[in-house]
Design brief:
heterodimer, A: about 300 residues, alpha/beta, Rossmann fold, 2 domains, 12 strands, B: about 290 residues, about 35% helix
């Protein structure tokens, strides 16, 4: 995903001189093409994220279209107040991109995990919150965020995420993609963990369970029309996210249900209220927290069979 | 119209006295605190808004305007008076100051909500980085405007200020000038005792900024410092030695006035010191809503 990000930003910068990429001293060689193309459109802001976010906000208020990029914890909670005040309150058209989100950096420990960003950003006004699931959806999210001119946070993975939407058009901000329709259960997945949902649906199909798979890239604005459409057709839902269950995407789905006074059967998969001090691969970490394909399958089976 | 004027020292002093009084009167009427912090930077604000900044109050979004950021946002009560006097909005707009639904409170709102404001400050350490972004934007887009910011000395406690100092220096941002309102106090103590701020000018110099240290109540020294640094390719830091509560003998260097609200009798006393005509004192209709 990060290579797709660098490529897409380079194209955007070529097409529009207002685009400036601010990096927090990461992306060694990743932005060489952008730098070769235009020295003015790339700034290494050093390991100083609070300042970087304030600088981006100031640029956005002065006619530029800054994109801020570093590892997710450092472009989110490290400079949270700058995001709230300088970017969101001022409605400065800044795109904030966090790379290596969720458990992408599982082996680097909890300092590099980001499992609270949805929860925090859901509560900040004026901010769009996006989590594309693969490289093509990331490219689309970047373009849509740029066109919207609104402050936007985009949470992306690292590298090697499989393409999930097979050339289908990526839906607009606030909508989702029904990847396959199904009758017995709906799996709602957000962000790169969607690949686990897709894998789970395959296993369920082999077991004779008809699962609908819906890929979502928008945490905010809440995809209410999408939710309403699904709720009118289906009874059982599994939501899955590489984020804390507390305050996450699943909770926004549950609150939508509650406000509509609907009785549905739902399991929300997300990380538990604990840090993960042991290390391992991202696949291991997903299994550790019960957000892998096997966990989605088990949840779907439980809902369908009981 | 857009260029800065060049008022005489006498005219600047007269303006500063009037604006000091209106700020003090407003504090009494509305219960708005931070008088000491307002009075220590009143002279700087008056000099900047009348003799330095290229602005058009009738066209506050003029793209070529100089940008000014009050990074020490808690001095907004004096900035609101300055912007009214400079013509960004009528003084009558300040009549609902501090009341339910008013835009005028203790800190600057975001620029969409009040002409003349470039950044909603109030949380310390935010204004300067935003100003750096504006200064870099000018360079990237080939624009000639300058960016100015006033910081408090307490604000220099914030790490983001020093992050910004490092980046502005690395980027050789010559169109950014900051003034530290060095009144030697922060909310609850001496700014050189709470954290080790001194020697402040040397710190900015060591961070790669062109630096000057002046009497922050001398219009002449302000002008000289700005002129002497104007050709320097580095970002500029002007350390202004000021007095908290400046202009009112019983407030000067007394940190109680960080939060204290004056009584009617004290406002009358201030009017005398500042040579304000009786008809402008007008203390009826007090309606404080702030708890400071």
């Amino acid at each position: 995903m990060r290579n797709a990000f660098a490529d897409e930003v380079t194209q955007m910068a070529k097409a529009d001189p207002r685009v400036v990429l601010l990096s927090g001293d990461i992306g060694n060689r990743l932005f060489d093409n952008l730098r070769a193309q235009s020295l003015n459109q790339f700034l290494n802001c050093g390991v100083a994220e609070q300042n970087m976010m304030g600088v981006a906000a100031g640029m956005g208020l002065s006619g530029l279209r800054p994109i801020v990029y570093t590892i997710t914890p450092f472009t989110t909670v490290r400079c949270l107040e700058q995001i709230k005040v300088d970017v969101a309150y001022h409605e400065s058209p800044v795109i904030i991109v966090g790379t290596g989100s969720g458990l992408s950096y599982a082996s680097l420990g909890p300092t590099h995990h980001s499992l609270e960003d949805f929860a925090i950003f859901r509560a900040i006004p004026n901010l769009q919150v996006l989590a594309p699931w693969d490289a093509p959806s990331l490219r689309a999210c970047l373009r849509m965020a740029f066109l919207s001119g609104k402050p936007t946070y985009i949470r992306i993975g690292k590298k090697g995420e499989p393409d999930l939407c097979e050339g289908q058009e990526v839906p607009a901000i606030g909508d989702g993609l029904v990847l396959q329709t199904g009758k017995q259960i709906c799996i709602l997945a957000i962000g790169t963990v969607a690949q686990e949902a897709v894998a789970a649906a395959r296993i369920l199909r082999a077991q004779g369970i008809s699962a609908e798979v819906v890929l979502v890239h928008t945490v905010k604005p809440y995809p209410t029309a999408l939710f309403d459409g699904l709720l009118s057709r289906l009874e059982c839902f599994v939501t899955v996210e590489e984020h804390a269950r507390i305050g996450g995407f699943g909770e926004s789905f549950l609150s939508h249900l509650a406000l509509k006074s609907l009785q549905k059967r739902v399991i929300c998969l997300g990380t538990s209220d604990s840090f993960m001090p042991i290390v391992g691969s991202q696949a291991f970490a997903r299994s550790h927290f019960g957000i892998d394909a096997a966990s989605v399958v088990a949840s779907a089976q439980a809902l369908v069979q009981n | 119209m857009n260029a800065a004027q060049s008022l005489s020292v006498e005219s600047l002093e007269q303006l500063a006295r009037e604006i000091r009084f209106r700020t003090i009167r407003n504090s009494y009427l509305t219960g708005t605190p931070h008088l000491g912090s307002c009075l220590s930077c009143t002279d700087l604000l008056v000099w900047l808004y009348w003799n330095v900044l290229r602005l058009d109050p009738k066209n506050p979004q003029w793209p070529e305007r100089d940008r000014f950021i009050l990074s020490k946002g808690h001095a907004a009560p004096v900035l609101f008076q300055v912007l009214a006097e400079r013509g960004f909005y009528p003084r009558a707009h300040l009549e609902d100051y501090g009341q339910d639904g008013s835009i005028f409170g203790e800190h600057p709102p975001s620029p969409d909500h009040l002409p003349g404001i470039e950044a909603a400050t109030g949380s310390l350490g935010h204004g300067l980085p935003m100003g750096l972004g504006m200064a870099l934007a000018a360079r990237i887009q080939g624009q000639a405007y300058q960016v100015f910011a006033i910081l408090s000395d307490g604000e220099c406690n914030e790490g983001s200020i020093w992050e910004c100092a490092l980046m502005a220096s690395a980027q050789k941002v010559s169109n950014l000038t900051l003034f530290v309102d060095y009144n030697k106090w922060q909310a609850t103590g001496r700014s050189n005792e709470v954290l080790g701020l001194a020697p402040l000018a040397e710190k900015w110099k060591a961070f790669g900024w062109a630096t000057a240290e002046i009497d922050g109540h001398s219009f002449q020294e302000m002008g000289e410092a700005l002129r002497s640094l104007s050709g320097d390719p580095r970002p500029k830091a002007i350390i202004c030695n000021t007095i908290k509560g400046k202009g009112i003998p019983f407030m000067e260097d007394d940190n109680n006035w960080h939060y204290r609200i004056p009584t009617a009798a004290e406002v009358e006393q201030c009017a005398q010191v500042l040579r304000i005509p009786g008809e402008e004192i007008a203390l009826e209709g007090r309606s404080p809503i702030s708890c400071g």
